[in-house]
């Protein structure tokens, strides 16, 4: 390892407010692999993406603020390259001594990174692979992407999985093989369409499925209730009716909200009332689950031996509508079972609410990646590491 140039694909895709990192969880999760490699004397070249600059250099997507935070968390210097595979990247990598760390600029500044064209992606991957002797895949949040840095580069260099990826996969295995029962999954968040695949697959595996957040209204509507101005995906109603039938057939306890906080409009300070989930007024929208639902969900979680939670129960970004998410998080913390939080916003909510991260068995860094794994899909980035 000493003296070898190791390209580490990390997931440093953190939320930014201007240049301020509002949640550094993913950077912290990347530290163990980078530290291990540097301690062994490798020249560590870290690459990652931030946001969606779509193949263009845009200052607001620069990884510069991330380099600063990474330096603090590693407690060692991080050389920052101002491009991905250009002059700066080559000079920065050439300048590394054994045990030193560099970070390349945002991978997605390069159109080749995300290209669907195998040749274009391959060209960029060749240039990226040229910066290193070995590859370590540790960007769990991106392993479901068929991108150059995730899928093509590991096929060009001797490769291994990093510590974060290994830990995340172990957790997901525990959620899919020989799962301890009762197995309860809690789903929330904004869109049903994001979670269709996982619902379809989990209905054959779970004992209970609790649905809250914005996606619950499509379920309530599918049962024939009016949901006012709440989030609704009309085009998913048939699918959702299918899920309701299937859950009944399989004896899965599919639990929907019984009451909601119905607000006059979508705002932090919007007036609201607690109403029955089956009687949401036409001029109101549900922004959080209500107090009876919080209790109901907590009771369904109390004896769980395994819990997977993805998606906030309400608009937790507004303090007034964060209570449902807090209640579910606290029920997971209270439970003695194996509890896993997946999803960028869910993990951010846990930290924003000031809840102890060690109250959960695992907080995943990957939303889409965890969901696709639980859907039973092959993840390109994991397949490439196994090959
Ligand atoms: P995750 O990133 O954890 O997978 P999602 O991205 O699916 O979660 O959903 C998170 C978003 O869902 C949050 O921004 C939250 O405000 C929104 N949300 C939750 N409940 C509601 C609701 N009732 N109405 C509108 N948006 C909601
Ligand atoms: Mg999200």
UniProtKB/TrEMBL annotation:
<dbReference type="GO" id="GO:0005829">
    <property type="term" value="C:cytosol"/>
</dbReference>
<keyword id="KW-0547">Nucleotide-binding</keyword>
<feature type="binding site">
    <location>
        <position position="26"/>
    </location>
    <ligand>
        <name>substrate</name>
    </ligand>
</feature>
<feature type="binding site">
    <location>
        <begin position="11"/>
        <end position="13"/>
    </location>
    <ligand>
        <name>substrate</name>
    </ligand>
</feature>
<feature type="binding site">
    <location>
        <position position="195"/>
    </location>
    <ligand>
        <name>ATP</name>
    </ligand>
</feature>
<dbReference type="GO" id="GO:0006096">
    <property type="term" value="P:glycolytic process"/>
</dbReference>
<dbReference type="InterPro" id="IPR036043">
    <property type="entry name" value="Phosphoglycerate_kinase_sf"/>
</dbReference>
<feature type="binding site">
    <location>
        <position position="108"/>
    </location>
    <ligand>
        <name>(2R)-3-phosphoglycerate</name>
    </ligand>
</feature>
<dbReference type="Pfam" id="PF00162">
    <property type="entry name" value="PGK"/>
</dbReference>
<keyword id="KW-0067">ATP-binding</keyword>
<feature type="binding site">
    <location>
        <position position="145"/>
    </location>
    <ligand>
        <name>(2R)-3-phosphoglycerate</name>
    </ligand>
</feature>
<dbReference type="InterPro" id="IPR001576">
    <property type="entry name" value="Phosphoglycerate_kinase"/>
</dbReference>
<keyword id="KW-0324">Glycolysis</keyword>
<dbReference type="GO" id="GO:0005524">
    <property type="term" value="F:ATP binding"/>
</dbReference>
<comment type="pathway">
    <text>Carbohydrate degradation; glycolysis; pyruvate from D-glyceraldehyde 3-phosphate: step 2/5.</text>
</comment>
<feature type="binding site">
    <location>
        <position position="145"/>
    </location>
    <ligand>
        <name>substrate</name>
    </ligand>
</feature>
<feature type="binding site">
    <location>
        <position position="26"/>
    </location>
    <ligand>
        <name>(2R)-3-phosphoglycerate</name>
    </ligand>
</feature>
<keyword id="KW-0418">Kinase</keyword>
<keyword id="KW-0963">Cytoplasm</keyword>
<dbReference type="GO" id="GO:0004618">
    <property type="term" value="F:phosphoglycerate kinase activity"/>
</dbReference>
<feature type="binding site">
    <location>
        <position position="286"/>
    </location>
    <ligand>
        <name>ATP</name>
    </ligand>
</feature>
<feature type="binding site">
    <location>
        <begin position="49"/>
        <end position="52"/>
    </location>
    <ligand>
        <name>substrate</name>
    </ligand>
</feature>
<protein>
    <recommendedName>
        <fullName>Phosphoglycerate kinase</fullName>
        <ecNumber>2.7.2.3</ecNumber>
    </recommendedName>
</protein>
<comment type="similarity">
    <text>Belongs to the phosphoglycerate kinase family.</text>
</comment>
<feature type="binding site">
    <location>
        <begin position="343"/>
        <end position="346"/>
    </location>
    <ligand>
        <name>ATP</name>
    </ligand>
</feature>
<dbReference type="InterPro" id="IPR015911">
    <property type="entry name" value="Phosphoglycerate_kinase_CS"/>
</dbReference>
<dbReference type="GO" id="GO:0043531">
    <property type="term" value="F:ADP binding"/>
</dbReference>
<dbReference type="InterPro" id="IPR015824">
    <property type="entry name" value="Phosphoglycerate_kinase_N"/>
</dbReference>
<feature type="binding site">
    <location>
        <position position="108"/>
    </location>
    <ligand>
        <name>substrate</name>
    </ligand>
</feature>
<keyword id="KW-0808">Transferase</keyword>
<dbReference type="GO" id="GO:0006094">
    <property type="term" value="P:gluconeogenesis"/>
</dbReference>
<comment type="subunit">
    <text>Monomer.</text>
</comment>
<feature type="binding site">
    <location>
        <position position="317"/>
    </location>
    <ligand>
        <name>ATP</name>
    </ligand>
</feature>
């Amino acid at each position: 390892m000493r003296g070898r140039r190791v390209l580490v694909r990390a997931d440093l895709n953190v939320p930014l407010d201007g240049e301020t990192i509002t949640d550094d969880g993913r950077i912290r999760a990347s530290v163990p692999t980078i530290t291990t490699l540097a301690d062994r004397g490798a020249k560590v070249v870290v690459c990652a993406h931030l946001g969606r600059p779509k193949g263009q250099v845009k200052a607001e997507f620069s990884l510069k603020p991330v380099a600063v935070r990474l330096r603090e968390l590693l407690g060692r210097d991080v050389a920052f390259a101002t491009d991905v595979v250009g002059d700066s990247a080559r000079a920065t990598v050439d300048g590394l001594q054994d045990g030193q760390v560099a970070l390349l600029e945002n991978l997605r500044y390069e159109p080749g990174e995300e290209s669907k064209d195998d040749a274009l992606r391959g060209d960029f991957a060749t240039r990226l692979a040229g910066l290193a002797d070995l590859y370590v895949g540790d960007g769990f949040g991106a392993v479901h992407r068929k991108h150059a840095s995730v899928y093509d580069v590991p096929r060009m260099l001797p490769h291994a999985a990093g510590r974060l990826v290994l830990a995340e996969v172990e957790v997901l295995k525990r959620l899919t093989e020989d799962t301890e029962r009762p197995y309860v999954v809690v789903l929330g968040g904004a869109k049903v369409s994001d979670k269709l695949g996982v619902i379809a697959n989990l209905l054959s595996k779970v004992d209970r499925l609790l649905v809250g957040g914005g996606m619950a209204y499509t379920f309530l509507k599918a049962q024939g209730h009016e949901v006012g101005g709440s989030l609704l995906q009309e085009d998913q109603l048939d699918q959702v009716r299918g899920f309701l039938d299937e859950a009944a057939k399989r004896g899965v306890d599919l639990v929907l909200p019984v009451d909601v906080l119905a607000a006059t409009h979508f705002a932090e300070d919007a007036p609201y009332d607690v109403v029955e989930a089956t009687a949401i007024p036409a001029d109101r929208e549900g922004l959080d689950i209500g107090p009876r639902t919080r209790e109901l969900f907590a009771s369904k979680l109390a004896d769980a031996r395994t819990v997977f939670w993805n998606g906030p129960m309400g608009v937790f970004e507004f303090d007034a509508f964060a209570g449902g998410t807090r209640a579910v998080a606290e029920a997971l913390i209270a439970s003695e079972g194996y509890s896993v939080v997946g999803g960028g916003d869910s993990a951010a909510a846990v930290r924003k609410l000031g809840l102890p991260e060690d109250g959960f068995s695992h907080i995943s860094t990957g939303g889409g990646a965890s969901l696709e794994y639980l859907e039973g899909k092959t993840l390109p980035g994991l397949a490439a590491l196994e090959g």
